[in-house]
Predict the 3D structure of the following.
Amino acid sequence: ARAQAMEIAEKPDVTYADIGGLEAQITEVREAVEDPLLNPEAFEKVGIDPPTGVLLHGPPGTGKTMMAKAVANRTDATFIKMAGSELVQKFIGEGARLVRDLFELAAEREPAIIFIDEIDAIAAKRTESKTSGDAEVQRTMMQLLSEMDGFDRRGDISIIAATNRFDMLDRAILRPGRFDRLIEVPEPDIEGRTQILSIHTRRMQLDPDVDLERIAGDTEGFSGAELESLATESGMFAIRDGRTEVAREDFDAALQKIERDDSPGTPVAFY
Ligand code: ATP
């Protein structure tokens, strides 16, 4: 059951080139995670400790998991992912044991990157969540913090966490020696959206009338994940029409479909 709760990849196939926008964030992640793994001497020479844990925060589907995977790819590290919600267990001590297993596994598979998604599930302020008032959830969090205190950062293990609910977090986890490097991952701006669209259409044959910048202009508020679905939907419209080339009308139809599906109370897709 324990192994099932974790997602392990020897070397994830995501690279920085697969991520649209987020240049500044990628630079920060590289400095905080990649440099300490690839070039620990630089930190020793300068006489500083690298950050202990990195916290990525921002809306859903903006590329947080992709960034963690891309660092693992670049550093040839094993990527070990665990969702915070999986650490909330029924039986006493079970969450804490999963945390111990997580760090043990990472030590066996060094170099390794531990990625804890939805960290808010175990690290919410007591006032914000029912579960965080739970003594068992508190114990799980304490176990995580003690593992972080205990591990020698010069060992080849890095820890990255992510949350969509930064406001909800118990500030105790952000202290020095814990998640002490915060990186905000925002919704993409128009340039970011254009880049993300070109990434997700790079294997598609686009009709010359497709203007990705115009589409980026029409998709304010879309996340990377939503732009990816837009590209996929457009391809589906082309297939339905018996074409292999994807045209402007397909993107328009896909956009309409997505907007329709999104607005509550309207009938769902009727193509
Ligand atoms: P969550 O908070 O919901 O876990 P996340 O921020 O971790 O979301 P990802 O899992 O990294 O989001 O992104 C989901 C998918 O959306 C990716 O697999 C990718 O296809 C697409 N995507 C998201 N952001 C980007 C981006 N910046 N560039 C390219 N693709 C992106």
